[in-house]
Write a structure and sequence with these properties.
The protein is mainly α. The protein contains three helices and two strands.
């Protein structure tokens, strides 16, 4: 796959990058080099290779999925102007 000058201008326009006409041939060569590298990667045989999430095999730490109130209700409502039974008390806004 090869990128021509018109494609370089279009990419620059889509990316909202101002590209001088003198820079187009240089950018064309850079984009072609990148695409050639990506084509090289497609030649690598990856059959049987598992996807990796880390370079070191490890298992996620898991905790039990238990519902609790965090046991800090007093701390949570401490700065509230008015509370009732660990709940925020707010004025009625709907009649």
């Amino acid at each position: 796959m090869s990128v021509d000058a018109a494609t370089v201008r279009r990419i620059a326009h889509l990316a909202r990058i101002a590209v001088a006409e003198a820079e187009v041939p240089h950018l064309q060569g850079e984009l072609n080099a990148m695409l050639a590298f990506v084509e090289q990667l497609s030649e690598v045989n990856v059959d049987g290779v598992e996807p990796m999430t880390s370079v070191i095999p490890m298992e996620m730490k898991k905790r039990p999925d238990a519902i609790n109130d965090g046991e800090i209700t007093d701390d949570v409502v401490r700065n509230a102007p008015d509370t009732v039974n660990h709940f925020f008390l707010v004025p009625k806004v709907v009649e």
